[in-house]
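Lecture 7 notes: from sequence to structure.

We start with a single chain of 353 residues. Read the sequence below before looking at the structure.
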Amino acid sequence: MAFVGDAMLIPVAELRRACMAEEAALQVRLAEVVRLFTPPLSRARRGQVREALAQAKLSFSRLSWLWAQHMMDPALHGLPPLHPDRQFFDALHRRMRPWAAGHEALSRVLRQGPLPLLPHPPAPDASEAVQLAVQDWAWLRLHRHLSPVTDAAPIRGNGQFADIPLPMAEFLRHLMLARRVGVAQGKAALRFLDVGCGVGLKVLMAAEVLGHADGLEYQPDLTRVAGRMLRRAGFASRVMAGDALGFDGFGGYDVVYFYRPIHQPDQMAALEARIAAQARAGAILIAPYVGFADHADALGCQRVAGFVYVKGVVDKALLARVAQVGFGDPRPVDPPEGFMAPLMAALRAWAHL
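Now the structure, written as tokens:
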């Protein structure tokens, strides 16, 4: 052993072996945390996760202490970047960095109760409400800028509604719930279809949130605008030109969104029946208008919350799982390396990061 002042230094070979042994022990303890973290979390299971996390925290503290010892040795502290010992401790530090974010996220999940299925919009006079309203106005202006349609009369005469967009903030509230339902169902990825997508702005947003989104549009001019806009945005989304009443591909999607694209009641009812008949069990439907709620049960669809429905049964177990899915950032990220990777992946899988 060597000394710096009153501190005893651990030989580098011994220090490296100690770090590797403690890191291996931490990896085992974190694997137990991940095994136990399977929502919905009962009170007993939360206690088990807390205890496993506490054991992992002790192990991480020991690993941190060991890593810090090399900083006390002037010979190690001054090593060039490419020296094997320098690279060993630098790599260990990179693997340690995600600990704080992962520990805080999991601790927050263990503290919180079930999350609301569809959070209420902010109060009209709240700052957030004003910000959302401004964003909606901006989306509407963008929609008007993109739309080539100046006369809606021929469209209405054809049985279609003009391209009337649902406010984006309201769409996002329901899209995020659809995402949470998909997570609760155990789906790693969700394919989205906007029936009557117009200029494609909802397809753009859904592609950002879910990763894959397509559109179906009756008007050729709108189809071309939407396709061009999505390509420029860098998405591989398809915008298909065609009549939804003759479309046979609804069963290929996990989430189907339709905002009453047809104004004739009998044709709209036929479209709803066609979507419900083709949708596979567990498919998620977003139908943000009152009429669909009146006969969703007859079409084999049950309501989750708001205007989000599932083809099939919505039972208490599914709702309990949805309530424990978070509102995390849906954008893909590079996973961390090392012992924190499984925990971070589990937290992201349940949308808590």
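The beta strands are 2-4, 7-9, 190-195, 211-217, 239-241, 255-258, 284-286, 301-305, 308-311. Keep this in mind for problem set 3.
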